[in-house]
Amino acid sequence: MSKKELTDTFQGAIAPKDIAVRMESVSKTFTRWQRRDNITQKERVSGQEQGPKKQNARENVIEETGAFRKERMFSKDKRKRIFRQEKTTVTALDNVSFQIGRGEFVAYAGPNGAGKSTTMKLLSGMLQPTSGDLSVLGMSPEKERIALMKKLGVLFGNRTELWWDHPVIQSFAWKKVVWDIPDEMYRRNLDMVTELLDMGEIRNTFARELSLGQRMRADLAMMLLHSPELILLDEPTLGLDVVAKRQMIEFLKRINREEGVTILVTSHDMDDLEEMARRILMISDGKLAFDGSFDGLRDITGNLTHFTVTTDGRMPELEGCRLLGGKHGVFEFEVDLSGLSMKTLLGMLSRAEGILDVEIRKAPIEQVIAQLYQAWKKA
Hints:
Elements: H1 3-6, E1 19-35, H2 41-49, H3 51-57, E2 61-65, E3 68-72, H4 76-83, E4 85-101, E5 105-109, H5 116-123, E6 131-136, H6 145-149, E7 152-156, H7 168-178, H8 183-196, H9 212-223, E8 230-234, H10 242-259, E9 262-266, H11 270-276, E10 279-284, E11 287-292, H12 294-300, E12 304-311, E13 322-327, E14 330-336, H13 342-351, E15 355-362, H14 365-378
Parallel strand pairs: 5-9, 5-10, 7-8, 8-9
Antiparallel strand pairs: 1-4, 1-6, 2-3, 10-11, 12-14, 12-15, 13-14
């Protein structure tokens, strides 16, 4: 399956005044220097023609004196290659276009190195695009960054704004002064995040003494003190335990639903993304590969479905279904309902003998995404 066949990009019609994020044909390239680790074929042939004496000079010289063995690690050729560098161009984003409406909750996913974090940095003004045009809340991140940051919240899972050697509440107070947050807005938002993120017990705790989950809650709370209209979250659930993750997800869903905050979130945990977002953007090798719903994403790889059959011990023979495993009379199967209809499947199950119970569910989104990644690698 080629990447072209997988692509099902959808651009919905959004009125200009309702657009929160707009990217049009945006590309971003980086230039980097790297050391040459291998000699070229021309150099290799040339070395062979110079004869064994000069060829040996390229190799490590080993001198042995009794039990002492000394190895010269750097020959002349190796020393030369250390200082011979090559300039390469890396394309992080390649002609990416999409729009996000105000009030949307959008997931942004892709393999490592696909361009997710680069996109977040472009939208927040940390980087400028090589080509193309982008706007955030009607402003240019490059030209109007200060004004934009008053309406934008950014959180990277591996970064913190908290003052390490001060209580959390002092970091909050510092932001109020530096950002010039009005008293009424500050008190209202502080009360909201304290209640919804269960911040009461850690407000007076030094940041360095917080657990990872507590620090993530504190960073999220601090990001929301100035009432941002759009928040960009890069791996917000990274490393969180089950309880902390649940608190984070429920809070994000609530502020999106009740406050109308637009959210763009990246994560490698696809189950979390499916629970939070209603729309997903998939990026691969710097190109937008999919824009649509999670159900639409499943349709690309076929309508994979799992079902569990409980029997009196006998394993049912179900044509077109793949057995994933089973023991003690409980068997799990996988079937692609795009090739075998649900009516046909239920008919086979009704005719099978010894069946006591059947449970049918969609295949985990993680499995669907994994199949997409593998297909993209082969393309």
